[in-house]
Amino acid sequence: MKLRQSGFSLLEILLVVAILAIASVLAATAMTGGFDGIQLRSSAKEIAAQLRYTRAQAIATGQPQRFTIDPRAHAWTAPDGRDGEIPEKLGIVFTGAREVQPRAGEGAILFFADGASTGGRVQLSIKRAAWNVDVAWLTGEVRLTRSEAER
Questions:
Q1: What's the pTM value of the predicted model, to 2 decimals?
Q2: For labeling, which of 58, 65, 72, 86 is most exposed (least CB within 10 Å)?
Q3: Distance CA 114, CA 64 (A)
Q4: Residue 31, pLDDT above cutoff 80
């Protein structure tokens, strides 16, 4: 009489783990709006981080520092030679003080030595989803909030 051992084979366990991994990836992309949503949020976080860096540089150096954004070129610049690109598929709307605008069609936010700024908003969007990066003029505080795209 032969006794049979009960349990699962290694192949069965690996198959279940693979199915769970695929289901997790699909659920994560569905909840975040897919890969476009991930790219949108990542770009907004990068701009918020660079605005915070610009403010910190103004405070540290005691000199005004400028963050600029060019919506047509999908590019931004910050102090110390920092620059970056925004994916072409994302919409960009800048709202800010016209007095510090470097050129027509470009936007800028100027941070002062006390941390204050000229204030403004950078909105990145795709389809109907959007993220706003707001800079308070009085305090220079940078906030990132989810929104709907402006039409």
A1: 0.77
A2: 72
A3: 9
A4: no
| Contacts of 67 by beta carbon, 8 Å cutoff, 6+ apart | 50, 51, 54, 76, 77, 78, 79, 108, 109, 111
For the chain, list the strands marked E by DSSP: 65-70, 75-78, 82-85, 91-96, 107-111, 120-126, 129-135, 142-148
Sheet with 120-126, edge to edge strand ranges: 91-96, 120-126, 129-135, 142-148
CB atoms within 10 A of CB 131: 24
pLDDT bucket at 37, cuts 50 / 70 / 90: confident
Residue type, 142: V
Reduced to 3 states, what is the DSSP secondary structure of residue 51?
A: helix
How many residues belong to the chain? 151
pLDDT digits (tens, 9 = 90+) for 71-83: 999 999 999 999 9
**Tens digits of residue pLDDT in 11-20:** 889 999 999 9
Lookup result for tokens 């800028």: 108
